[in-house]
Design a protein that fits this description.
Layout lengths: L11 H7 L3 H27 L3 H17 L3 H16 L6 H23 L4
Helix pairs in contact: 2-3, 2-5, 3-4, 4-5
Length: 120
């Protein structure tokens, strides 16, 4: 692994999962960086529409991808959003929790893109 300092990710899980295969790591990270933003946009739309069933489903869909890149803190935060939407309790806090997650995701995308530039 490169000497990139990750604030939002821990690459250990991905390295273990891939057996240290740099090409596989690159492919997984590229897929994450490409697919997660549209998934998050869809989640934002569901939150704005107060479509709590789809908020629950979309958060549930995104959550495991955060584990792949070791963003476990964000994964836990998404779990909270998922639980709130599923249980329909504390719904007024979802927008605030989601908005707090977005800048951290942007940092994560930057970190992952920087790392991807170091891989052949």
């Amino acid at each position: 692994m490169s000497n990139i300092n990750f604030e939002q990710a821990n690459m250990d899980y991905l390295v273990d999962l891939s057996g240290g295969n740099t090409q596989l790591i690159k492919e997984i990270l590229q897929l994450f960086v490409k697919q997660t933003p549209p998934d998050m946009e869809l989640l934002a739309t569901y939150i704005q529409q107060e479509d709590w069933e789809n908020v629950y489903r979309q958060a549930h869909h995104i959550k495991p991808t955060l584990a792949y890149v070791g963003a476990n803190g964000m994964r836990e935060e998404l779990q909270v959003i998922e639980s709130i939407a599923k249980n329909r309790q504390g719904l007024d806090s979802i927008t605030e929790k989601f908005n707090a997650l977005l800048p951290r995701l942007e940092t994560l995308y930057g970190e992952l893109n920087a790392y991807l530039r170091t891989i052949d």
